[in-house]
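Researcher: Watch the backbone:
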Amino acid sequence: MKRPPRPTLRTGYSPGWTVRRRRHRGSDPRARIATPPLTPKVLLCESDPEIDEQVGRLYHLELENLRDGADIRREAYAIARRPELRLRLEQSDELVDTLAGHVRLRSKRRRGILRHLSNEPDLAGLPFFLPPVPPMPKGAEWEGVRLDLHLGRLIDEAEHVWITIFYTDYGWRPTSKILNSIQMRAVLAIKAASFYELNRNTRIPGRLLPGTRYDAETVARWLLGSGYFLFADSSSE
């Protein structure tokens, strides 16, 4: 079977984990932010109703299987009857097995979903489709506050994560007052090994003892000041 041509290599940086999608107060919290469909243009093939229908079914199958380590290859390959779509699934699953990461966390990667390929180094292995949008926090303390969403990454698990945020006089910060290690890795979008090393060296401020928890206010002020440069270097290790 002839392989379809590979997409053109990116010439610039992807917005990646710094992308934020705005939600307006008063909107339906159950509504999902529209995810750009995986069009035939992405697969570099001609558009037709058959492939659009199969991609749509793969999208809904993925949304129904968001649990850690979900293996939906059997169902996905049954849906992907078109050779170019089946090939893309095979390439995606190959990345799940070959991308580096913490052994314990790699077992949480899902199989049978469409992912960005290795020719997009800043997105390689991450799912094409974004997860469902979480509900925005409610209550008197959030009245008049500008709420938003930050698209974080769990690199070792190869997943996107939505993080609710709000804007302050110094920038944005998570709505949670305390962040655990998983939330911290998602916000910073770094590998677990880099995170553990930086944590051992106490290079992340705001740590609360005992355990690996962090004060979100302290972290946000530091992150928006100098932390981005530190973690940009760490994530590329």
Summary: The longest helix spans residues 216-234. Residues 36-129 form one domain. Strands lie at 20-21, 147-154, 159-168, 171-174, 178-180, 207-208, 213-215. The chain has two domains: 36-129, 140-234.
